[in-house]
Amino acid sequence: MKATKSKLTNQITESDSEKLRELFVDGLKDIYWAEKHLAKALTKMSKNATSQELKAAFEQHTTETEDHSARLEEIFGMIGEKAQAKKCAAMEGLIEEANEIIESTDKGTMVRDCGLIMAAQKVEHYEIASYGTLRNIARTLGHSDVADMLQITLNQEGETDHKLTELAESYVNEEASAE
Ligand SMILES: [Fe+2]
Q: What InterPro entries would the database entry show (predicted)?
């Protein structure tokens, strides 16, 4: 196994690593667009949430999301690239789903909160997948400082996901089922 791995590593040519860098920068542009648009969407989700706890969770993550954008801008600078956003079709669709939940549920209900948690967790899982992959590519490209920064954001996305699960399990789902 070890021999195979090192053989593959030796096969990485300069142009391969240039292509990997392109993929990496593209991934950063994608998640940068996602973070910028998510901040606005989270504000709307917070306004439309029923319970104070969920409102607060969304508010806190709005602030964190703004920090994530700023961190990405720093990362672009560290690798000598201009901070540029590239439309992320996946995040656009996930935000659209959150809007549909607001439209299809009644104001002031726990069913709405249950739906908003579902939408937000889909967003978090998309971000967790993106940041996890980007962190690994950063390491492969030898940017351990960038990988460490991506890890900070990744941790916050994970904590948010965990908190949303806790809210769902502690009272939201049960109260929604009683409505
Ligand atoms: Fe984020």
A: DUF892_YciF-like, Ferritin-like, Ferritin-like_SF, YciF
| pLDDT (tens place) for every residue of the chain, 179 residues total | 444 555 555 556 666 688 999 999 999 999 999 999 999 999 999 999 999 999 999 999 999 999 999 999 999 999 999 999 999 999 999 999 999 999 999 999 999 999 999 999 999 999 999 999 999 999 999 999 999 999 999 999 999 999 999 999 998 888 888 88
In a domain, 147, yes or no: yes
- Distance (Å) from CA 151 to ligand 1 centroid: 11
How many whole angstroms from 34 Cα to the centroid of ligand 1? 8
CATH number at residue 147: 1.20.1260.10
The answer to whether the pTM exceeds 0.70 is: yes
Residue 29 placed within a domain:
yes
N-terminal to C-terminal alpha carbon distance within the chain: 56
Q: Would residue 5 count as lying in a domain?
A: no
Residue 132 CA to residue 114 CA, distance in Å, equals: 27
Residue 113 CA, ligand 1 centroid: distance in Å = 20
Distance 35 CA to ligand 1 centre (A): 6
What is the tally of structural domains in the chain? 1
Q: Are 119 and 103 in contact (CB under 8 A)?
A: no
Q: Which domain holds residue 50?
A: 15-178
